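Suppose a colleague, Dr. K., hands you the sequence of a protein chain of 232 amino acids and asks what its three-dimensional shape might be. Before reaching for any lab equipment, you can write down a predicted structure in token form. Begin with the sequence itself:
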Amino acid sequence: MERSLWGYLPLLMRSNSKESVEYILQALWRTRKTGLDAADRDIVRDMLQLENDSDLDPLLVCLRMLIRRFVYENVSKDDIHKLFPTEVLPELQRLLTLLLQKFQREWQDDLLKDQVTLPRLKAMTWDMANQDAESIDPVAVINLKLQNDAQSHSGESDVKFQLAQDTLEMMLSSMYSIRDQLSNIVSVILDFFFLHSKIFFKMQMWLSKYVLSSSFQDETSTRHLSQETNVV
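The predicted structure, expressed as tokens, is then:
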């Protein structure tokens, strides 16, 4: 199925200019989450002088597949030509290679912006508040320092909040639950590796016995053959 789609790429040669192909690639990337709307489809169809969608849709699928592999697999400039099968015309390969190289940095930046990167806890301090006020229940003041590694919002930020005893107990209960779940996951992973290490060890033992047995049989056969030869 994938290889048959490549046969629609020559339809790009119907466009009037390199800029038209550039527009099509940019439009496909811009609408990677939503798909082309009716207006964009009409523009692309006119650029390629297509009368209906029977040829347009496979072409768009092929181009989206090409763009996705190029961006998500982080293909280097020297390896772009490996994305194309031999059936794709050389001049078409050169055109698409030039355009993909042109948009590589921009599309990679867009891809990073699409990724959800949560800040991580870098440091935590706390102090008690209302220690001198007898009529007010004491609360803990928590200071968190968070590190955001996302390129668009890189840097540190501080978060400060208060915890009363009842809120703290609820929070601790949730944290214990998180700890237990993480411990269970680690335990499952360790059990998995332990089980497979035992299987691997048994396989090694079996192979060692098989090799030794084969060697012994070969040696025995050689000895018998030698004896028979001497008898003869």
